[in-house]
Amino acid sequence: MIAKLLMRFFSGLRFPWLFVATAVLFVIDLIVPDFVPLADELLLGLTTLLLASWRAKKFSDSPSD
Question: Which of the chain's ends, N or C, has fewer CB atoms near its CB within 10 Å?
Answer without folding.
Answer: C
